[in-house]
Amino acid sequence: MLLVLLLAAVAPARRDPRVEAVVQRIEPAALQTTVAKLVGFGTRHTLSDTRSETRGIGAARRWLAAQFAAAAQGTRLKTFEDRFTAEPGRRIPAPVELINVGAVLPGTDPSRAKQAIVMTGHYDSMPSDVMDAQSDAPGAVDDASGTAMALELARAFAREQPAVALYFVAVAGEEQGLVGSAHLARRLKQEGVEVLAMTSVDIAGNIQGQNGVVDNTRGRLYSEGTPIAETEAQKRLRDAVGGENDSASREWARYLERLGERYVENLDLLVMLRRDRIARGSDHTSFNQQGFPAVRLSEMVEHYDREHQTPRIENGRQYGDDLAHFDSPYTAKLCRALAAALQSLALAPAPPAAVKLGGAVSPDTRLRWTLPPDTRIANVAVYRRRADSVRWERAQLVGKVDHVVLQNVIPDDEFFAVTTVDDAGNESLPQPPTELER
């Protein structure tokens, strides 16, 4: 029997107590303590001292590894280390050992054992000269803030039971050219891990902009439109339907926006239609290059005197990324938003596959898909928005079915996606059509 629907506006969002519980575990005080400790190492430059117990990248790395180990004690959480030799390059003059450290929480669904969600912050820092490994480089906001989030999220999730694996990683060598994240992304790809979604939290603790504006109620989500690793088949489909704004990365950005705003009060997350800020980058790009959906979460306003600057006062102007300008309540707000999205996606059923769009030269839209054999699927939701819009505007639960006809919805005028839903309302990532039905 053909299911014929006229979709209604998005239904009121549901909250899962399991998601609420993780969100409430995020504490500003813990984030403040971690950032203060990392700042206290003086510099965390990639090429700085590795032997000292009190200064440099080595001391910071060992302290972080110990904190992740403490978080994992007595839980299913496992410490994670990704150790490798970085070869000489533009910002690395000689081979150097780098180590990504963190924790991974294994998934509980055996059929999805090779699927994972990844979150990173980079624990290295830099002064004004990216090759200066001696000067102070406190890196409170860039990026002790993201690193503190990785540790706090590991603690918050330690006793959870996600369907898929969760990685919380402090990556190395970001300031030297995204070196640590590139190695991590390649490693996961080589190990056959399917990264469902990745988030780089980079510069997420400052609330005062260079222009004096103070903003602690918004954050930015950057994601690629056209995928870096787009295949020829994907390009042909994108050309046919105009899917420049519906990459897997952008769907993850929208998902993070929806879930973050659902579970965190007084927060507005902006889906920025750029891969990153103009001519700048972060570790999510390393995952994009491997074909994984990835976004950057960042503060709303930046103060450029506090980024990539050797601490100093010059002509009465203060420079440096110090602890005094780190705002832990704001960082906690962003961390809670990310926690909500991570938990909801980790609990959600497997997504629909092979979504087909039909109805060209017709007043009705036809959608077909394949449901995976996931017993937790209780329903299917169909999303849509006008072709001149960015956010999903309408959605409807259509039942546990594999096709619908949207009556009097002209496919030329809308974009569509399909998601699976569990009994608690947790949804998979929306899946736009991957095939046109002739």
Describe the structure.
The chain is an alpha/beta fold and 438 residues long. It folds into two domains: 17-347, Aminopeptidase, CATH 3.40.630.10; 349-436, Immunoglobulins (Immunoglobulin-like, Sandwich). It contains nine helices and 18 strands. Strands 2-3-5-4-6-9-7-8 form an eight-stranded mixed β-sheet, sandwiched between helices. The chain has a five-stranded mixed β-sheet with strand order 1-16-13-12-18, with no helix packed on it. A three-stranded antiparallel β-sheet has the order 15-14-17, with no helix packed on it. Strand 14 (379-386) and strand 15 form a beta hairpin. Helix 1 (17-24) runs antiparallel to helix 9 and helix 7 (248-263) packs across helix 9. The chain is globular. The model is unreliable at 1-12 (pLDDT under 50).
